[in-house]
Amino acid sequence: MATPYHFQSPRTILTKMLHMKQLPLPPPPPPPEPKLILQPRQRTSPAMWCAAIVCFAFSLLLIIAGAVILVVFLAVKPRAPSFDAANATLNAVYVGSPAYVNGDMTLVANVSNPNQKMDVVFRSAAVELFFGGRRMAAQALPPFAQRRGQSQIINVHMVSSQVVLPPELAVEMVNQMRSNRVVYTIRSTFKVQAKLWFWHYSYWMSALCDLELTAPPCGVLVARRCSTR
After folding, report:
1. Model confidence over 147-156: pLDDT tens digits?
2. What does the radius of gyration of the chain's CA atoms come to, in whole angstroms?
3. How far is CA 185 from CA 16, 87, 115, 126, 166, in A?
4. In a domain, 172, yes or no
5. Per-residue pLDDT reduced to its tens digit, 98-132
6. What total number of domains does the chain contain?
7. What angle do CA 204, 106, 208 make, to 5 degrees?
8. Residue 17: inside a domain
9. Domain range spanning residue 185?
10. Quick check: is 27 in a domain?
11. Which CATH number covers residue 103?
């Protein structure tokens, strides 16, 4: 006996189709896991090993040298020499017309080495005399050495010959001589070589001194202010 067919109405079919559309879709399948491709491990070449060893040894030497320099610096405590105007005499000053100046000054300088464990050598030295920013005279000094803790007196003869001054500076110099107070500036430059055992190093040192003297012919030093750099 044949199976009877069940006929459904169009409304029932439409209802079932709408119900199927409202059902959630199944989630998509997960993507396949990526496959890791392992590269073959490369061996370090002997040249790379040698370069690494050289760099490590150089870095170690730098660290050791820095530590040694630091220990020596803390033990020695190096200090720069000092320059001071111990005395000065203004022997003569003549202001001519037009504004030119002739002058004569004797400077007694005291140069000392404050280091207790280091000797110094002054390879070159120059002393300059200024008035109002204008250079009046210059004198070079011969090289000399100082042992640790030693001081030395140096006589410097500063002669000004036919130095042309601006009119305002010439008037200022005449007024200072009339007031019995003449102000000069001393600038000195030294090339110093410090010696510690087998180690030598050089540097430049400069000193600046402001001098106040009485008027010539027997001008004496009444005030000074010196600084060393």
Report:
1. 988 999 999 9
2. 45
3. 114, 13, 27, 14, 17
4. yes
5. 788 999 999 999 999 998 888 999 988 899 999 99
6. 1
7. 30
8. no
9. 82-228
10. no
11. 2.60.40
